[in-house]
Specification:
Nucleotidyltransferase, domain 5, 15 strands
Length: 421
């Protein structure tokens, strides 16, 4: 065993051990590990891929899918590579071609409705999916249809979601899948490598719909004010930055991390937030808000870039949503340090909610008036919920979108939940 593998491998819970050691020939056609966060679902799937699927012979192509190729790489491949050892895999991140112990896999992103095109024309022998509750019906339906070989296997991991989503209402609850489907429920107690202290921290970091889904594994509808259970207008707000933070900003060795996140507007306001991360508490210290409708003037990318520079944006990295290509190019041309935002909506909202609930996110109210107005009114879209989707109402959400961009994928997960593992 390599040093990297030795650092990763830990004792398995009985549920994971039994699943890993069962040969694919004895698995159901469709196997799903579904339940709480940090319960070892994905890691069990990683090890199953190495131990079992690497020697499982079945016709057809092999796929590993996630919300994006980047999330597959981060959530699955890094551990698989470390355990397998450098001589036993190769990965081309651009093409998504992944070889493991002589078996060829194709890594693909499967979040949007166009994802099904990535497997058109393919015969599917092995499909491994991470966070499958996020996959659209068009994609999963295409996978089922193409699993024509005898012995084809589907393995998926996921937290729970809306009871109206496709995975729950038309697959897990469907009698048509019952004979070929094995859903293995996971809870935090199924992971023997998390201390009780860390479990308590994870549980305490979740509230409302996120507590019901991520901890209690209840398929429930997201409704009402999004941050209702996490936001406290007293505990999460200060009038000004504490003197200790202001003073440390002039100390090069101990200065907090200052950076910016933008929600880019064309037919809606453009907002930039300034983040000051002390390593413990993250302060939203200032906002720059421009509403072209109110101002009766639409700014160009260049004018927004000038405004950002005046706001202080060259003092740290600037996080911009990936779809804002022209604005990103303008900033890069002007010498800004630009980083693509992780714009996963429901996961990002969960990150913000957890940091709020743990009082690790604090807004300077006197200099962030629009953000303060948007946070309590930010609500789930009831029409989307009926279709099984988690989506916020797209109204008065520009500052809270910038808030999400500046936190999700930026703050490490152990800081989001307060748990060590």
């Amino acid at each position: 065993m390599s040093d990297d593998a030795a650092a990763i491998i830990r004792p398995f819970g009985k549920k994971s051990y039994d699943f890993i050691m069962t040969p694919p020939e004895q698995d159901a056609r469709y196997t799903m590990l579904i339940g709480a966060v940090r319960s070892s679902k994905t890691f069990a799937a990683d090890v199953k891929t190495i131990v079992q699927y690497s020697r499982y012979e079945v016709p057809g192509k092999r796929f590993i899918a996630g919300i994006s190729k980047e999330t597959v790489h981060r959530n699955m491949l890094l551990d698989i590579m470390a355990i397998a050892g450098r001589d036993n895999f190769s990965y081309n991140m651009s093409s998504g071609e992944f070889w493991l112990f002589g078996k060829q896999y194709f890594v693909i992103g499967a979040r949007d409705e166009a994802a099904y095109k990535k497997i058109l024309g393919s015969t599917v022998g092995v499909f491994i999916g991470d966070e499958i509750v996020e996959f659209p019906k068009s994609f999963l339906s295409q996978v089922w249809m193409r699993m024509s070989p005898e012995g084809a296997r589907f393995l998926g991991t996921s937290n729970v979601g809306s009871p109206f989503c496709y995975l729950k209402s038309e697959v897990i609850d469907s009698p048509e899948f019952a004979a070929d489907l094995n859903v293995i429920p996971y809870s935090l107690d199924d992971n023997p490598n998390i201390s009780q202290k860390s479990k308590n921290a994870i549980i305490a970091s979740q509230a409302g719909v996120f507590r019901q889904r991520y901890i209690d594994s209840i398929w429930c509808v997201a409704s009402g004010a999004i941050y209702r259970s996490a936001w406290d207008p007293v505990l999460n707000v200060v009038d000004k930055l504490p003197d200790s933070v202001t003073g440390s900003m002039h100390n090069r060795q101990k200065a907090p991390d200052k950076y910016y996140a933008c929600d880019v507007g064309v037919d809606h306001p453009q907002v930039t937030l300034e983040f000051i991360d002390t390593g413990d508490i993250i302060y939203i210290s200032r906002e720059d808000f421009w509403d072209s409708r109110t101002e009766q003037k639409q700014r160009t990318d260049g004018e927004y870039a000038i405004a950002l520079e005046e706001f202080g944006g060259k003092q740290g990295r600037v996080i911009v949503p990936p779809e804002a290509a022209s604005y990103r190019a303008e900033l890069q041309q002007r010498g800004f340090w630009v980083v693509n935002a992780n714009n996963a909506v429901s996961e990002g909202i969960a990150t913000v909610s957890s940091l709020m609930l743990r009082r690790k996110l604090v807004v300077v109210g006197s200099t962030c008036p629009h953000l303060l107005k948007e946070i309590p009114s930010y609500a789930w879209d009831s029409r989307a919920a009926k279709a099984g989707e988690d989506a916020p109402v797209k109204m008065n959400d520009d500052a809270v979108d910038a808030l999400r961009y500046g936190l999700h994928g930026v703050v490490p997960q152990w800081r989001v939940t307060g748990a060590q593992w």
